[in-house]
Write a structure and sequence with these properties.
Length: 249
Amino acid sequence: MAVLVSLAAFLMTLIGGLAAMRVRDNRHLVLGLAGGLMLGVVAFDLIPESLEMTRHRPLGVPAPMIGFAAGFLLLHVVEQAVAIHRAHEHEYAPHVHAHGHAHAAGPAGLLAASALVAHSLVDGLSIGLAFQSGTEVGLFVALAVVAHDFADGFNTVTAASLNRGDRRPAVLLLLADAAAPIAGAALGTLAQVPDAVLGPYLGLFAGVLLYLSAAEILPEAHSVHPRVMTLCTTGLGLAAVLFIVGLAH
């Protein structure tokens, strides 16, 4: 039953990713919306859920918040390492791709998209574990997962495409993100994952998303185009996640 229900999450994730691919002429609006969705997922979903999962407080600090800081710092370190690498390349010769564009490789975006895939796996795991508690609980959790999987697919494609001309990694990661809830649901019917592990992981993932949104996606969205409409789409993304979370509860 859990695996069957997770097929809806598969379809919703694909729809979100395809929507992000189709909107090309208004890329700044897509990025603004994605930034708002990510901020909303962090503030209204991941952080509250992670804090509810575990009360463990190493050194007096909630474990999920330590994971949050570690995730933020992790993506910052990755981005700075790539920046140092590009700076050293420029000391020897211009690094220009075959089509004449000097694009960044976008590893931070790929890392964040990979984290979204891992998050979708946890979503599927949550469905499987919830069905162990009863059909009604399982359906409620599945509804909450499906409701925000559109944003997951949308954000996966947006993150994986950031500063990249090649969309193949984005397509592969979208397929992985769509399939992850099914795999997680199947695993969740067989295994038990302690909340003490899931809580810090969700905090880590929230830190990764916040860094990508604040340091990569939103600055890119506002770099060229008029900012009023972009700000409106960011606000729309935040409001959409708040509405979805409200429905789920």
